[in-house]
Amino acid sequence: MRQAALLKQPRNSRRKLSGQVSLTSPVGGLNSRDSIADMKPEDAIQMDNWFPQTSDIRVRRGYSSHATGLGAQVQSLMAYNKSDGTQKLYAAAGSSFFNVTSAGAVGSAEVTSLTNAKWQHINYMDSSGTNWLCCFNGTDQPRYHNGSTWITITASSTPAITNVTTSLLDKPFTHKRRLWTVEKNSLSCWYLPADGVGGAAVEINLNGIVKRGGKIIAGGAWTIDAGEGLDDYWVAITSEGEVVVFEGTDPAAAATFSLVGVWHIGEPIGDRPMVKYGGDLLILTKQGVYPMSKALASSDVAPNVAITDKIQSDVSNASVLYSGNFGWQLFLFPQAEMLLLNIPEKVGSGQIQYAMNTLTGAWGRFTNIEANCWELFGSDAYFGGDEKVFKFWNQDKDDTSNIDAEAKQAFSYFGSRGLIKHFKMIRPILLANGTPSFSAALNVDYEDVPVNASLTFSPIVGGLWDAARWDAGLWGGDLAVIRDWQTLVAVGTAAALRLQSQSGGNPNELRWEATDFLYEVGDVL
């Protein structure tokens, strides 16, 4: 194949024949929106099991087995948080609830004879000061837990809910000191007396308010000022994508509870399409994940206001293929400054997660985490899988397996668009607490070539006590800078580095800071 010859110039020419350019790692995160010929160099075409941070990207942390022996797919996790600091974690699997607070094999189920394990829950303190974990699924009668006892909620239990068939209640949320639920397969919401978990339920029906029909999928409180005040709005979204907003305090009186408006933002996905995000609400739809504050700013929702705008192609494709599968969920993980979008490519296995850095808005993609549901317990993240509950982001392996990570940075012309370049060497600049294992490829001119070369790095030697030089030796747990030049040859006008790593044990932390490229400049094609 004929190639453009490198430009030979007279000795007195001032034009440089070679160049060295440094690019930051793809801290802009995954980009499936823009043309690969027009991406910013800090973006990534592929970013699997890397998480973008403010100044670098890191191989994500893994998970460990927490609770075992649940006998079926864990489809709901429910944390009980008492005001005195007492906390418990429950898992719904098959037809039972299990206490999975402690690690290890679970004991006998605390609740049995349930129809399914797809429950939604809320923590609520009533006027007596009792903390309740209130669980609903729209099929079974609700189950309440007060820290010691599980109670089946009927019209005659203590507490009791009257005036409605309790087994039809689902999707609990709170607004203005009231517990609300949604009636299954309807446009009706039911609320209880203020500060109560029982009593006579009162209906608010959205028939005549929404125009597209359908049923209510979820509800919540939208807090404009990030606190609790007069501008806390009541919100519900229907299966047809209409968002209904009320304002006020007492839903029993039109003078104190009135309709603000109805907007159409797109059909929600899954049974858990809402998550509180600071003072805002995020809503997961087939068109992306929208903050309420931006989605309702005008009558037409602009696609670029979605926080998933940069990965919208991936989200749209997944919604077409998998929107009917159980397991879609938005999950906020503050400890890691992360928002997770759980996508079930299969039911019970094969899930993937898109992970957004909540500080920068950059996205990565996680694989090999088979999660049906997520829950925050204390400050830690847990997910339910096949017969097990796992603790996330707590070790350097996925249970006992290494974590394979791969990233392909956006193509760059290195400041000379249209000129042929002979790439000779690269120098990835890494931070690690062990000697990393990497394979790489230098893709040129928009090709998609898999990794084909192993990189070799100088071994990192830890300091020995009473032998290494003080304030110079690398002690266990420290991150060392690794910056060895690697021979990687390619010819083209634009290039993109593709890196594949395997992490788990050595090193147990790996960060990609930047990359230096050494090349010669040729002539215009």
Structure characterization notes:
The protein is 3% helix and 45% strand. By secondary structure, the protein is mainly β. The chain has two helices and 42 strands. It is elongated, with a radius of gyration of 27 Å. Strands 1, 4, 5, 36, 39, 40 and 42 form a seven-stranded antiparallel beta sheet that branches. A six-stranded mixed beta sheet has the order 2-3-35-41-37-38, with no helix packed on it.
Topology:
Blueprint lengths: L17 E7 L4 E2 L12 E6 L1 E3 L4 E3 L3 E6 L5 E8 L5 E7 L2 E4 L4 E2 L14 E6 L5 E6 L6 E3 L4 E3 L8 E2 L6 E7 L2 E6 L4 E4 L7 E2 L1 E4 L10 E8 L8 E7 L3 E7 L8 E8 L9 E4 L2 E6 L2 E4 H4 L16 H11 L6 E5 L4 E7 L6 E7 L5 E4 L6 E5 L2 E5 L4 E4 L10 E7 L9 E14 L4 E8 L8 E3 L24 E3 L3 E7 L2 E9 L6 E15 L1
Parallel strand pairs: 2-3, 6-10, 15-19
Antiparallel strand pairs: 1-42, 3-35, 4-5, 5-42, 6-34, 7-8, 8-9, 11-12, 12-13, 13-14, 16-17, 17-18, 18-20, 21-22, 22-23, 23-24, 25-26, 26-27, 28-29, 29-30, 30-31, 32-33, 33-34, 35-41, 36-39, 36-40, 36-42, 37-38, 37-41
Mean pLDDT: 91
Q: Largest beta sheet, briefly?
A: 7 strands, antiparallel
Strand content: over 45%
Give the total of beta strands.
Answer: 42
Structural class: mainly beta
Number of helices: 2
Radius of gyration of CA atoms, rounded to a whole number: 27 Å
- The separation of the N and C termini measures 14 Å
Shape: elongated
User: Which spans of ≥5 residues are poorly predicted at pLDDT below 50?
Assistant: 1-14, 472-476
What fraction, in percent, of the residue positions are helical? under 10%
